[in-house]
Amino acid sequence: MEYDISDSTKPLYNSIIEQLEKTLSRPINVLDLGSSYGINSSLMKYNLTMSELNDFFLNGTEPTRIETKQFYEECNCNDNMNFYQIDISDEALKFSEEMNLCERGMNVDLEAEKLNLLGSLPKIDLVIATGCVGYIGYKSFLNLLKAIKNRQSNYIKSEKEYIAPIFAFSVLRIFDMEDIEEVFKMYDYSVVKSEIKPIRQRSFSGPKEKGQTISLLHGMGISTKEYEDEGNFFADFYVAKSKN
Ligand SMILES: C[S@@+](CC[C@H](N)C(=O)[O-])C[C@H]1O[C@@H](n2cnc3c(N)ncnc32)[C@H](O)[C@@H]1O
């Protein structure tokens, strides 16, 4: 269904990473939520495009592990960013680790309570999520922000400076952001919807999905002219930053 939103979120994430690099002067640690097989890392760390990935992976015969490893080894790898990935698909994470797309993959259900997921990670500077909200919702952000707050307290106890991570993520226009925004506010984050135009995510599977989506959006008072009316899902882009 021509999923290619990750091409559009890539420069948005990269510009945040560039700003962070200027202040931190070290490689930036990125936590990718719902990372799947490592699409964001392929695009950002290996500077590939969705069309290059499609040409390699979907050219008729499935490439072998060795061919895939060679494919990534021949790309320029940007060592100024380190990826840590979370997904419920173990197979996807294993692939990503094997192909050196991430430092570590964590097989975690982000919606589940009692997450202790940041304990073993280095300090995270940027949390990203592309095409993922909907699968995950306010509970996931609550779980993460709780874990971040715990970490922050531990750093303060040991008198180390702690800068809370920035969150940046796409959200399909059909999803109400109210609960997620509420959670960020509870943890003293300000959430801003980017002023850029809505971003295309993928095409509709057929007339039924299109009709349901458009009527949902109209019910929310959102005009679908020039966007969903043309046959594609669209997402907005959000950035959340700690006020402290
Ligand atoms: C549409 S894919 C997003 C792919 C990728 N982020 C990209 O670059 O566009 C959604 C991903 O979220 C993962 N996912 C769904 N529910 C989840 C949960 N509760 N916790 C963690 N990951 C989840 C799925 O396994 C899938 O890989």
SSE blueprint and pairings:
Blueprint: H1 5-24, E1 28-33, H2 39-44, H3 50-57, H4 65-73, E2 81-87, H5 90-98, E3 104-107, E4 126-129, H6 138-157, E5 166-172, H7 178-186, E6 189-193, E7 199-203, H8 207-219, E8 232-242
Bound molecules: S-adenosylmethionine.
Please provide a written account of the structure.
α5 (90-98) links the parallel β2 (81-87) and β3. The protein starts with a helix and ends with a strand. It is built from eight helices and eight strands. α6 (138-157) packs parallel to α7. The longest helix is centred in the N-terminal third of the chain and has 20 residues, at 5-24. The protein has helices at 5-24, 39-44, 50-57, 65-73, 90-98, 138-157, 178-186, 207-219, and strands spanning 28-33, 81-87, 104-107, 126-129, 166-172, 189-193, 199-203, 232-242. Strands 1, 2, 3, 4, 5, 6, 7 and 8 form an eight-stranded mixed sheet that branches. The model has no long low-confidence stretch (mean pLDDT 95). The chain is an alpha/beta fold and 244 residues long. Residues 6, 34-36, 39-40, 86-89, 92, 109-111, 130-132, 135-136 line the site of S-adenosylmethionine.
Heterogens: S-adenosylmethionine
Which geometry do the CA atoms define? globular
Largest sheet entry: 8 strands, mixed
The CATH class is identified as Alpha Beta
- Number of DSSP strand runs: 8
Average pLDDT value?
Answer: 95
Written as H for each helix and E for each strand, in order along the chain, the element string is: HEHHHEHEEHEHEEHE
Give the proportion of residues in helices: 25-40%
Uncertain stretches:
none
**Tally of alpha and pi helices:** 8
CATH superfamily: Vaccinia Virus protein VP39
CA-CA gap between termini = 41 Å
Task: Please give the radius of gyration in angstroms.
Answer: 18 Å
Strand proportion, as a percent range, falls in 15-25%
User: Given the helix and strand composition, which structural class is it?
Assistant: alpha/beta
CATH topology (level 3) name: Rossmann fold
Count of the domains? 1
Quaternary status: single chain
